Amino acid sequence: MNVSATVIRADATNEADVRAAVDGAARSLGRLDILINMASIYVKTPNPTAADWSSALDATAKSTFLFSTHAAPIMKASGAGRIVNISDWLPASGRPRYKGFIPYYVSKAAVVALTQSLALELAPEILVNAIAPGPILAPPNLSAEENAKTVEDTPLSRWGGAEEIVKAVLFLIETDFVTGECIRVDGGRHLY
């Protein structure tokens, strides 16, 4: 299978960089059909500052907004497109669960709201959805006890693995009748 790829470096929080990246990708590839927004900062901030707030919201929500609004006209010009945003299982479940993550949680909740708003604004040519991962890959510094607790708190009793996110992305880019949704890929973690 021949696959074309291009690498474009950009600051995802800088509108000029984003515009140049989107335009460069469209020029290089000939068109834009799919955009996956997954930039984020996952940092525990027990006493968040204004800088923590801005960093999280800019990296996660602002970048999603910028890439989506710059890619949408190109997608609309070709008649169709798919935007898939990455949120988190906690905001998708409608509640925070862990202390010390206010900016992170709010930024991922903003991605869900942005997904719904963009789905309405960009229909019918562009379908916009989100994926809300749960325990997918264990962090490298996770203790054995933390790992056991995560597995115990997940009804499917395991970490999902990156391929589960790939399956969800493929579903959302292949569907012709799902838009404005946020699908949890969390092994049922939200049920506890």
Report on this model:
This protein is α/β, with parallel strands linked by helices and 192 residues long. The chain has a single domain, classed as NAD(P)-binding Rossmann-like Domain (Rossmann fold). The chain contains 6 helices and 4 strands. α2 links the parallel β1 and β2. α2 runs parallel beside α4. The longest helix is centred in the middle third of the chain and has 29 residues. It is globular and about 50 Å long. The chain starts with 14 loop residues before the first helix and ends in a 7-residue tail after the last strand.
Q: Secondary-structure map with pairings?
A:
Layout: H1 15-29, E1 34-37, H2 50-78, E2 81-86, H3 89-93, H4 102-122, E3 126-133, H5 144-152, H6 162-174, E4 182-185
Parallel strand pairs: 1-2, 2-3, 3-4
The backbone outline, from C-alpha atoms, is: globular
The total domain count is: 1
Fold-level CATH name: Rossmann fold
Task: Report the biggest beta sheet as strand number plus sense, adding barrel if it closes.
Answer: 4 strands, parallel
Oligomerization state: single chain
**Poorly predicted sequence stretches spanning 5 or more consecutive residues:** none
The overall pLDDT average reads 95
Count the E strands: 4
Structural class: alpha/beta
CATH superfamily: NAD(P)-binding Rossmann-like Domain
Strand order of the largest sheet: 1-2-3-4
Helix run count: 6
CA-CA gap between termini: 43 Å
Name of the CATH architecture: 3-Layer(aba) Sandwich
Spell out the helices and strands N to C.
HEHEHHEHHE
- The CATH class: Alpha Beta
Radius of gyration from CA coordinates: 17 Å
What percent of residues adopt helix (DSSP H or I)?
A: 40-55%
